Amino acid sequence: MSSAVAPIFGVLGSCMGCMVFVENIAKQEPAAMNLMTFSTFLFISSIGLVFTSKFFTVKNKIPLEGYIKTVSMFFFVNVVNNQALNFHVPVPLHIIFRSGSLLATLVLSVLIAGKTYSARKYISVFAITVGIVICTLATSSQGNSDFSMEEASKHYKEWSIGIIMLIFALIASAYLAICQQQMYEKYGKHPDEAMFITHFVSLPFFLIMGNDIVSASTKLSASAPYTLIPGIPSLWVDLFASCILQYGCIKYVYQLNSRVDSLTVTLVVTIRKFLSLIVSIFYFKNPFTAQHWLGAILVFAGTFAFADIWGGNSPKKQDEKKNNKFRFLFFFQNYARCLASFPKLFRRSFHSLIQVIMFHPKFLRFYIACQIFHFVIIFEFVF
């Protein structure tokens, strides 16, 4: 099995960088969620059309009927998750529901795929899910949070619809991971083709939301001009940056899905959500309370238990541990060489970071996203 180290780091880096721009757009224009989803699908489809399909001159290795379940579930999950925010669902509750995908994937893998897991896997998944819920609730209770009974009572009907949407999206998301794994098992592993076809075939469905997308486009065009590029609305710049990073995030998720099982993929994505939550706590200088410590301990302990780093000593497990050890050593050795070959570049990056913080704090978000994208590129070349 190919090493999954590079895709894991790619998922964590690009997905967390993408959330910086997504959250900024969501705060200024909450109604732009469908536009964001459509832009991401269009961007990924365009790149796949040129480099993967080569304008449909490359024959598909997986027949189109093999994508039916995957495409329908994929489109449903993306649209419903974004639409739920339009029904006054509090953001912390939204995060909690999406964090439950790990537990949902475990249950559906047993019920549908007929897989069996050890008791340690069940306990670790439960610990990770509970840990993220505790951290989310602790964060939402700080400052001015919209996660309150008063806010929920004002929009009870819309809030109820949003909750139902999140429940269906949670189940569909878990089923999607299983569908992708079953597709790879039946037709072979072709992640680049699968990513292109899944997004390209979904584009016609956005005609249903045409008016909403056009309206959101008008609002983004009316945003304040971007400081570095005069004349271009700032939210369009954020949208383009989110598409680039989202492309990297989805690409690495597809690569990871072709190398490990669906439960491990969901684990990596869930840990990414947890790390994003922790980063936001420190970024906004919120206190790291005892609840956060409890949640973090549960998440990391559950992750280590899931990885089985203290597992048994059977010959097979020992061989797997040796292989994993060599993979990690190979990864860090190559990455260290990469860092050593660019000492001036990294010194300049550090100096420029100091300058941005001292003299241009407004550009800090843009600078951090560029650095994250830079590291993702490094990982790509290392492997």
UniProtKB/TrEMBL annotation:
GO terms for molecular function: UDP-N-acetylglucosamine transmembrane transporter activity; UDP-xylose transmembrane transporter activity. It comes from the Eukaryota. It is found in: Endomembrane system. InterPro entries: SCL35B1-4/HUT1 (IPR013657). Pfam families: UAA (PF08449). GO terms for cellular component: endoplasmic reticulum membrane; Golgi membrane. Keywords: Membrane, Sugar transport, Transmembrane, Transmembrane helix, Transport. It is a multi-pass membrane protein. The chain crosses the membrane at residues 33-52, 93-113, 122-139, 159-178, 194-214, 234-254, 263-284, 290-307, 366-382. Belongs to the nucleotide-sugar transporter family. SLC35B subfamily. This is UAA transporter.
